[in-house]
Design brief:
By secondary structure, the protein is of the alpha/beta class. It has a single domain, classed as TIM Barrel. The protein is built from 14 helices and 15 strands. Strands 3-8-9-12-13-14-15 form a seven-stranded parallel sheet. Strands 4-5-6-7 form a four-stranded antiparallel sheet, with no helix packed on it. Strand 13, helix 12 and strand 14 form a beta-alpha-beta unit. The longest helix is centred in the middle third of the chain and has 22 residues. It is globular. The two termini are 13 Å apart.
């Protein structure tokens, strides 16, 4: 059974022999720690860990996932020894730290309400210039692999939250939900155009979209607005994917996703990633009991356990074994590995996943 067959059998509840051993990423401070603890300076992390990259990052047909074309010209507005203020390629003015890993601090936005939509709308249109110049080569490479194949499915509202900022986005959801619908419909049309350019030339196994629209207490967007303004856009993309034989559609969304899960399922999204455990103790097994086999997961392994000891790692694996055995679930730490994780702990975790048999 090769990696592609194993992935599909797990996701479609067929027979499989073991779990994939996937490595995602870590904070730059984590990599620095691991270098002090024995990770060779020039090591390929996948070879070193004996792990595969997550396929919807490594084996994916895509264009610039920032979506804007052309992008805004990056411009430095202020710079000190500790930070840099710039207009980013997405049009947002933000302060970037030079000292530590952190999200940029947004300062100002071009797109605050409907008056700013036209400038972004014109950058969200189909254009052959969006397609990678090496697209044909990439397709041939992916077709030759025995790995799961993925295709980019865009971001319906996650990028909009970035372009507008959290406060402006939340206000728009309440006072101008038609703006949210206009944006998501435009993005859905763009993604359908992209799928029409690439999928006649290669079959894919899963589509990957990005959102990050939930925090520890739930979604930024009211579920009622999500249902009316966003679900139709997902449905449009999901229908196009299925017309090309791709039945797996994943959304990458951090935070507490509970309130949006039934709406994603209604929209045709059936794989969730990374299923963060967080302070709210998300339980993918509870989701499976609630929604049945239609919901699938990649992630759902508490990354903070990796900071502890081997007993804690063993317990977390045991806790997830029933879901692994049932299918439709591939374990992966629920976000990038944190700097308090010893290299030996992470290698132990990967070895334990590698030993599992079903």
């Amino acid at each position: 059974m090769n990696a592609r067959q194993r992935f599909l059998n797990i996701m479609e509840y067929g027979s499989f022999d073991r779990m994939p051993v996937w490595h995602w990423d870590a904070w730059k401070e984590t990599w620095a720690r691991w270098a002090r603890e024995g990770l060779p300076e020039d090591a390929d992390p996948f070879e070193f860990f004996g792990a595969e990259p997550v396929p919807f990052f490594a084996h994916m047909l895509q264009f610039d996932w920032g979506l804007l074309y052309p992008r805004f010209t990056e411009e430095t507005l202020e710079e000190t020894e500790t930070y840099r203020v710039l207009r980013q390629p997405d049009g947002v003015i933000a302060q970037h730290s030079k000292e530590q890993s952190s999200l940029p601090r947004s300062i100002d936005f071009l797109f605050k309400d409907r008056s700013g939509w036209a400038e972004y709308e014109r950058r969200l249109q189909p254009d052959p210039g969006r397609l990678p110049k090496d697209l044909g080569t990439t397709i041939e490479r992916l077709r030759s692999l025995d790995k799961p194949r993925a295709v980019f499915a865009g971001s319906m509202v996650g990028m909009l939250r970035c372009w507008m900022g959290v406060e402006n986005f939340c206000c728009a959801c309440c006072v101008d939900p038609d703006l949210i619908r206009d944006v998501t419909d435009t993005i859905a049309n763009l993604m359908c155009w992209f799928l029409d350019q690439v999928l006649p030339n290669m079959s894919v196994d899963i589509a990957w979209g990005w959102e990050d629209i939930c925090f520890r207490s739930g979604p930024l967007i009211p579920p009622a607005v999500f249902k009316e303004a966003v679900v139709p856009a997902y449905q449009k993309v999901a229908d196009r994917l299925r017309s090309y034989g791709c039945s797996l559609y994943t959304v990458d969304c951090d935070g507490q996703i509970d309130a949006l899960l039934p709406l994603w399922l209604e929209a045709g999204v059936n794989v969730m990633f990374p299923v963060e455990i967080g302070t709210w103790a998300t339980d993918p097994m509870a989701f499976r009991r609630q929604y049945g086999p239609e919901i699938r997961f990649v992630g759902g392994f508490n990354k903070l356990v990796l900071e502890q000891d081997r007993h804690a790692i063993d317990a977390e694996i045991e806790r997830r074994k029933p879901l692994m055995a049932a299918g439709g679930f591939i374990p992966l730490p629920d976000h990038e590995i944190t700097p308090d994780t010893p290299l030996d702990n992470y290698r132990y975790y990967l070895d334990k996943i590698r030993e599992l048999r079903f």
